[in-house]
Design brief:
The chain is an alpha+beta fold.
Length: about 700
């Protein structure tokens, strides 16, 4: 069975004979039959894993880590105060709180609670999970708070008054949905949601296709429509971009697929197309210049701008002539460089880049002649440097520095002076004194060198006996960078295991070309890259198939599912987290229809269908094959990938008489859990399984 083509898409006769799906009933997430199946599967695997002698210690260690008080409270600037969202053993769902920079700098900050999510959930009888907040600049007093039921991507949006520390009575309110809202002024928001409530305003991907202007006190049903995309788009939404001088751009962003967008400027009720490349992303407004990241080459005005570069456009010129933009180059990547992230301060653009998967922070200031001046912030080398937040009222910003064996350190930096200081440093959570970190390169099937990081004991025996965990993602231009994981360190590295982080194609480690090399029906090269690293680890003598396992989540769950079914000879463990596994039925599960730009459309493209019929893990399982026993993990509340992929894969394995472990968290969404206890249980089950599979006799 296969979903019909989205409305507006051309139907192409499919010549392949599609297999019957006896487990399609598991796609009905909350049906009693499906929930009974989950309860039974959870009970069997949880009982088996929790009976292992290593489980309780793993749980205790994991809970201590995820609820510890000495984690760094990551701050966000807001009008002279620092804000932070915090979870611990006493605040399982978390508190939104604030303090001053002076108090934070003291090391013993006095926090003022703004919103207590645990108390709110108890008061309202709901399983609320905080999903973020956006506040109206420049005052940043009125905010839109997003709350999720149990961790779903779908949220309820409520207006909140920071001065009063309470929700605004009769204020803006958007019922549960995959909605998007952005402030225009204190009495107006631009909203994209399921206005009709019957799905008619949603795309086939399940996201809003319609943008309307909603005034204070106005019913959502009376909002004024300003833009309507198409049913077979991914989504349409609005963006209101401001700089520190009060300049504003209002934009429509229509995502025709996951990677391609159309842009338009909003002026009152008039929407005018804006001629930006379809694979580009507006990042912010500085000195009335719109900064845009390019994911494709752009030839305009007699100049070629390369994919991966950042350009700026004068906002007034854009408004005057949106059909003829005149960009200025801000930054172009070198051969080993890639854009990672950016933030803005009052007068600067601050950018994090990767250079051979090592971090650097650059600062850009607008010059009077329209160009940009670049400087490099003085920070430690060979670290992962992640931007935390920028201050719109000064040129200060926060960033986090970390490495595999170097705990997180929070820096306060100044983009104008390029100086920085450490404000917080997390204490070591595991013993790294006998560990070594190496960057190595494997050779893939097409001869390309694929980098990976290896963390191991200095005296690890090179006789094939080291328990080794290989992590991978390989998709959506997301880079995998070195990071300090107390969970991996305490539950794996301290126990004698080795950890490997792969930088396979599909990711963003080397810019758009690295990602696009594995798009759609070219995706086999991503799987080949991962297998090449596994083979390199075995050939080096570090490990062997008996002691080699892999882990990946979401798109990485697809990766591990494919590797398990394509190369079962390489592995003795496979952690398959919140995965995509049914690549034939993907468009009808969760938000799967939105990712056809990444994977191809099996509903309309015979080549994509043929490709995935050979590789879809759910369909590739065969009886009598010596697969590694997988640990399949999902969440009932995961409305992104959807729990059906994991459920159906486990059900098919059971039908074929193949051993597996299955656990479905009832909350948490597309994450390990909704609170520290759930997170700790997920990690304890995972590493108990890995210990059993790879460290056992």
């Amino acid at each position: 069975m296969i979903a019909s083509a989205p409305a507006g898409a051309e139907e192409i006769p499919l010549t392949q004979s599609l297999p019957e799906d006896p487990y399609i009933w598991l796609e009905d997430t909350y049906s009693q039959r499906a929930l009974d199946w989950v309860e039974t599967e959870n009970a069997v695997s949880a009982a088996r894993l929790e009976a292992e002698p290593t489980y309780q210690a793993a749980y205790d260690e994991a809970f201590a880590i995820v609820s510890s008080e000495d984690r760094i409270p990551m701050p966000a600037f807001r009008k002279g105060m620092l804000y932070n969202f915090w979870k611990d053993a006493d605040h399982l769902r978390g508190i939104w709180r604030r303090t001053t920079l002076e108090s934070y700098r003291s090391g013993n900050a006095e926090w003022e609670t703004i919103l207590d999510i645990d108390a709110l959930g108890e008061k309202e009888g709901r399983s609320w999970v905080y999903k973020g907040v956006s506040c109206l600049r420049p005052e940043e007093r009125l905010c839109l708070v997003e709350l999720s039921d149990g961790g779903e991507d779908a949220v309820e949006i409520r207006e909140f008054d920071l001065a009063k520390k309470s929700f605004v009575e009769g204020g803006f309110f958007v019922p549960k949905g995959k909605s998007d809202a952005t402030w225009v002024d204190e009495d107006t928001i631009l909203l994209s949601t399921d206005f009709a409530g019957d799905g008619s305003d949603l795309t086939t991907s399940g996201y809003p296709a319609v943008v309307k202007r909603l005034k204070r006190g106005q019913a959502i049903s009376d909002a004024v429509e300003i833009f309507r995309g198409k049913k077979d788009d991914v989504a349409s939404s609005a963006a209101v971009i401001r700089d520190n001088s009060g300049n504003v751009l209002q934009m429509i962003v229509r995502s025709t697929d996951f990677w391609n967008r159309e842009f338009a400027l909003i002026d009152g009720d008039t929407v005018t197309p804006l001629a930006l490349p379809s694979q580009s992303s507006p990042l912010g407004l500085i000195d009335n210049r719109l900064v845009v990241k390019l994911s494709q080459d752009w030839a305009v005005g007699g100049t070629d701008y390369p994919a991966g570069a950042l350009v700026s456009l004068d906002a007034d010129a854009l408004k005057a002539d949106p059909a003829n933009p005149a960009p200025t180059l801000v930054w172009a990547p070198g051969p080993s460089e890639a854009y990672s992230s950016a933030t803005t301060t009052a007068n600067r653009l601050v950018m994090s880049i990767l250079d051979n998967v090592s971090g650097r922070i650059l600062s850009f200031a607008p010059a009077a002649d329209g160009s940009w001046t670049k400087s490099t912030v003085d920070l430690p080398d060979k670290m992962t440097l992640s931007l935390v937040s920028g201050d719109e009222d000064s040129d200060r910003f926060f960033l986090n520095a970390e490495g595999f064996t170097t705990p997180d350190a929070l820096y306060l930096a100044d983009a104008a002076s390029d100086e920085s200081e450490v404000l917080r440093a997390m204490p070591a959570k595991f013993d790294a004194s006998d560990l070594v970190v190496e960057q190595k390169w494997a050779t893939s099937t097409d001869g390309t060198k694929i980098p990976y990081f290896l963390v191991r004991k200095k005296n690890a025996a090179m006789d094939g006996t080291t328990p080794t965990l290989l992590y991978g993602y390989g998709g959506f231009q997301v880079p995998m960078t070195p990071g300090y994981s107390a969970i991996i360190g305490k539950l794996w590295l301290e126990k004698g295991g080795a950890y490997v982080l792969s930088n396979i194609r599909g990711g963003g480690e080397f810019g758009p070309a690295w990602h696009q090399a594995g798009l759609q029906t070219k995706r086999q090269i991503i799987f080949d890259d991962f297998a090449a690293i596994a083979e390199d680890l075995i050939a080096s003598g570090l490990t062997s198939p008996e002691h080699l396992g892999m882990m990946g989540g979401s798109n990485g769950g697809l990766l591990t599912g494919v590797e398990m079914t394509q190369r079962p000879d390489l592995w003795n463990a496979a952690v398959i987290q919140v995965p995509l596994l049914d690549m034939i039925g993907i468009s009808r599960i969760g938000a799967g229809a939105s990712w056809q730009g990444e994977y191809g459309n099996v509903n309309t493209d015979p080549d994509a269908l043929a490709f995935w019929l050979e590789r879809s893990p759910y369909h590739a399982l065969k009886a009598g094959t010596d697969y590694p026993v997988p640990f399949i993990y999902s969440s009932t509340k995961d409305d992104r990938t959807g729990s059906a992929h994991a459920r159906k894969f486990a059900a098919r394995m059971k039908e074929l008489g193949l051993p597996y472990e299955y656990f479905e968290q009832t909350e948490g969404g597309h994450a390990a859990g909704a609170d520290p206890r759930q997170e700790a249980r997920s990690w304890a089950l995972t590493y108990t399984y890995l210990t059993r599979q790879l460290m056992g006799e």
